[in-house]
Amino acid sequence: MRTAVLAVIYLGFVAAESDFVTRKLCKDVDVTQCTVQSVVVDPCPQGPAFCTMKRDKTYGITLDMTPHFPAETLRLSITSDVDGSGNFSTVIKSPGDACRLLSCPLEAEQRRIFDVDLVMDKRASGKFPVKIKLWNEEDTSQACCVTFNVKVK
């Protein structure tokens, strides 16, 4: 009995320190193009509902995904919906070459782990979703896209 109680306490502690975050697939992207297995934010001891982030601090984001499309070159953008309008107009990381961070070409149905750094701007504050999108430069309908919630203080 005592072992069971200690196991439950330990599991509760591990869950409280979890870096995995609750994610949603992007509404403006065809969800059949990509499977996102997990999103990890490091550090994020408040997970999984949201991560509390400090301005000007670097956070590591790891995306575990399986694209269902091939791509010679990939683009990456990170945006946020600070005003709650649903348009993700606040740019955190301008669209750029994702092949510098992830080896290209990308093969369809090959599971990939993708790491990128995220730094919140000094002006950011409040709780809002962040959107990470990777897409085929030659066919923008082919994309992996996910959102997760952060709280910036």
TrEMBL record:
Signal peptide interval: 1-16
Matching InterPro entries: Ig_E-set, ML_dom
Protein name, UniProt field: MD-2-related lipid-recognition domain-containing protein
Keywords, comma-separated and alphabetical: Signal
Record-annotated MD-2-related lipid-recognition domain positions: 23-150
